[in-house]
Amino acid sequence: MMQQALPSSEGLRRAALTLHALAPEDRDWLLQQLPAAHAQALAPLLEELQMLGIPVDRGLVQAALASAAPVTTALVPARAQALCQALLHEAPALQSQLLSLLPPEHAAAVLAAWPADILRPTPAALPASWSPALREALYQAWTAPAGQEARP
Prior knowledge:
Elements: H1 9-20, H2 24-33, H3 36-52, H4 58-67, H5 77-88, H6 92-101, H7 104-112, H8 132-143
């Protein structure tokens, strides 16, 4: 089993302050979701905050939620071209479904690389039978850089 590295001491302190600002039930639930080593590292920090009587700052929860918003990065033109070339060899229905796995701006970059003389696919709704895990695995496998296999 691969062990995850602990966050930096600054990251642990921020996490402890954020957890301290939560309701006890929410804090306990979140701690149970963490790897054991992370929860164990946070426990003394949380105890110290409580022992020192540090006031709860609900703004920390808001800031943590705002900073956790997903960040979408631009697709490198060469990668968009490579994905486009891979799609060109697929059936139109599969082209549409694979495009749907991409964030909209990435799909637009792939379509911008599409040859003008070939009918462009449009992203289609994915089959309801595709679980989120399957969608994520397909996305990771399909968008992994060439020569680098995506791992389950």
